[in-house]
Amino acid sequence: MFEIAPSILSADFTRLAEEISVVKEAGVRVLHVDVMDGRFVPNITIGLPVVRSIRAVTDMIIDTHLMIVEPSRYAVEFAEAGANMVSVHVEADPHLHRTLTAIREAGALAGIAINPATPVSMLEEAIEFADFILVMSVNPGFGGQKFISTALNKVRVLKNMIREKGLDVRIEIDGGIDGSNIADVVEAGVELIVAGSAVYGKDDPAKAVRELMEKGTVWV
């Protein structure tokens, strides 16, 4: 089964608590939070204070994606701020084992994020220390980008790697997911689907979530 994780990057920050409540009422369990530093990616978004604020207004699972340089310096702090899931980029962290272990010890699930042009083979030595892998299907840094279709094959390769190693690792995907491609994403083996503009870019986010779930269940 798959889940939708709405990204607050596309939400109205003047009404953030309300925006979170709306998708929760639609059955959403996971809320995706994009953290960008203007260095690893060409944009700056939010940080620890917003994660703490979100934690104070909801019991939803907070999935924090760190698109930052030196993620090992801050990963544990995000877990301590209330994030239940923390992912760091394989391209940004030369000491993945140490960072992933620290995230787990802080009480959160540890994830590895991988950019579109990065091969799955880069995960070979670290995947057993992760709870989930976040496959980027756009180049990180901005919302509303077009889906990169080669991500589907990457998911399939990753699924085979997980199966061959006998691991219990979930696959998440982020970028350009909407009603036109969600069924293909689910068929490839994704279990957690991040959706930003496809949810919060609509007049009725709750209805948008339900419609995405319906279109994705073709392969379930």
Q: Between the first and last Cα atoms, what is the distance in angstroms?
A: 7 Å
**Protein structure class:** alpha/beta
Assembly type of the chains comes to single chain
Q: Kindly provide the radius of gyration, computed on alpha-carbon positions and rounded to a whole number of angstroms.
A: 16 Å
The averaged pLDDT comes out at 95
Strand-residue proportion: 15-25%
What is the global morphology? Answer: globular
The ordered H/E elements are: EHEHEHEHEEHEHEHH
Mind summarizing the main beta sheet? 8 strands, parallel
Strands across the major sheet, in which order? 1-8-7-6-5-4-3-2
Number of strands: 8
Q: Could you estimate the helical fraction of the residues in percent?
A: 25-40%
Helical stretch count?
8
Query: Low-confidence runs (pLDDT<50, min 5 residues)?
Result: none
What labels describe this entry?
single chain, eight-stranded parallel β-sheet, 220 residues, globular, alpha/beta, 8 helices, 34% helix
Fold blueprint:
Elements: E1 3-6, H1 16-25, E2 30-36, H2 48-57, E3 61-67, H3 75-81, E4 85-89, H4 96-105, E5 109-114, E6 132-136, H5 151-165, E7 170-174, H6 182-188, E8 192-195, H7 197-200, H8 205-216
Parallel strand pairs: 1-8, 2-3, 3-4, 4-5, 5-6, 6-7, 7-8
Give a description of the structure.
The chain has 220 residues and is an alpha/beta fold. The chain is built from eight helices and eight strands; from the N terminus they run βαβαβαβαββαβαβαα. It has an eight-stranded parallel β-sheet. β4, α4 and β5 form a beta-alpha-beta unit. The N and C termini lie close together (7 Å). The mean pLDDT is 95.
